[in-house]
Amino acid sequence: MDIPLNVEVTCSNEQVCGRSDCVLLNPVTKEITHLVVRTEGFIHQKQMVPVDLIVESTPHKIVLRCSQKELAHLKPFTHVEYLDAYGEEYLSEPEITGPGAVYMWPYGMAENGPMAVPIEDIPQGELGIHRGAAVEATDGRIGHVDEFLVNPENSHITHLVLREGHLWGQKDVTIPISDIKRLGEDVVYLNVNKHAIAQMPGTPIKRWWP
Questions:
Q1: Predicted TM-score of the model (pTM)
Q2: Closest CA to 50 of 27, 68, 71
Q3: What span, in angstroms and rounded, lies between the C-alpha atoms of 41 and 51?
Q4: Domains in the chain: boundaries
Q5: Which whole-number Å values give the CA distances from 180 to 94, 125, 139, 141, 184, in the listed order?
Q6: Inter-residue contact 17 to 37 (CB < 8 Å)
C-alpha cells in the first residue's frame, strides 16, 4: 500500500476533504500509526487519521472510510500557543482572549504583541515525517522523502520512495526497509552509501501534483 504525501484525500462520500500532509510513526518498530490530513476550506485544519481508516491508497490519491464530518471530529494535529514578543515564555490562550472573542485563522496581533505559533501534537514516542524530509546515506544527503510503501496487514513500512530531483535525475528510487538505519525528526538515515543506492532499480517519474 502506498502512503504518498501531498496528494488528494477523499472521504467516504467521494468528496475531496484535503491533502496528505505527513505521517506519524513509531521509529523503533517503523510502524505508521496516523496520516495527517490538511483539510480543504477557508480555514485549513490538520487532523490525525488512524491508518485503519484508509481504505484505498495509490500514488495519486488516498481514500478514507470516514465522512468529512467524522474527519473534522478526529484529534487535531496542531494547537496554537502565543509567544510574548517582549519575553521568552509562551502565553496560554485564555490569557489573551476574553469571553466571546472570535479569531479568524490566520489572524494578526498588534505590533509587538503576542504572536500565534502553531505547535504539532505528535504523540509521545512517535515521529512526524513530512514530504520533503531529508534522506541521508552514509556518505551524505541523497534526496528527499516522497512516499512510503506499507504492509497493509500491520502498517509497517516496507520501502521508502525518494522524491524526484535526487542525484539520479527524474526517476523514483525505491529503498527497502533493510537499508533504513533509523528515522529521525524529518530525516531518514540509511545504512548504505550513494553508490549502492545508484545501483538500485528505478522507474521514470510521472507526477500529477506539485
A1: 0.75
A2: 71
A3: 23
A4: 2-72, 80-113, 130-204
A5: 44, 19, 14, 14, 11
A6: yes
Q: What is the mean pLDDT of the chain?
A: 80
The answer to whether 2-72 and 130-204 have equal CATH topology is: yes
Looking at the structure, give the CATH architecture of the domain made up of residues 130-204: Roll (2.30)
Q: How far apart are CA 70 and CA 98, in angstroms?
A: 29
Q: Which residues contact 118 (CB under 8 A, 6 or more apart)?
A: 78, 79, 80
Q: In the chain, how many H helices and how many E strands?
A: 2, 18
- Which residue, 4, 10, 60, is CA-closest to 40? 10
Residue whose entry in the numeric block shows the C-alpha cell 527524474: 170
What is the CATH number that goes with domain 2-72? 2.30.30.240
Q: What is the pLDDT of residues 50-80, one digit of tens each?
A: 999 999 998 889 999 999 999 999 999 988 7
